[in-house]
Amino acid sequence: MGYKKLDEVMELLNDELDGFNQSIGRLERLTQNTDNIKVMPDTTEFERLLREHLNYEKVKISKLQQSVEEIRSQISKARLVPKIQLWIHYWIWFVSLVIIGYLTFKVSQIDDVRERVFNKGEQEVISDMREYFDQYPQHYKSYQKWVKEKDSVPNQK
Length: 157
Hints:
Blueprint: H1 2-36, H2 44-108, H3 110-135, H4 137-152
Helix pairs in contact: 3-4
């Protein structure tokens, strides 16, 4: 009975070895087939996607640059308006100061002008009165009388 079992085990081992050898043969044939197969990687789809992405990014960058340029131009224009406004304010202040100075100078001369005008008017009145009194001497006498009365009465103010 011992031999029978041993023969069975041997037969099983032999079958297993034959199956193993067949598997190795198939594996060798598959390895030879895969060695003979030359796989050419196709990257055209990746390249197309990459080009699309790069073009999309270029468009985005150009739009961004345009926006930055527009903002830069608006900022530069915004700076010009206050500069112009500042110069206009300086000019108005300068003209105002010149006018105020001129008017102050003229106002300070009003007393001199009044005095000159008063003296001139006084001389004209005196010359006109002389002519009048020369024509009417009796009025000159009543005028002198009136001046004496006026000088004798004190100011009642």
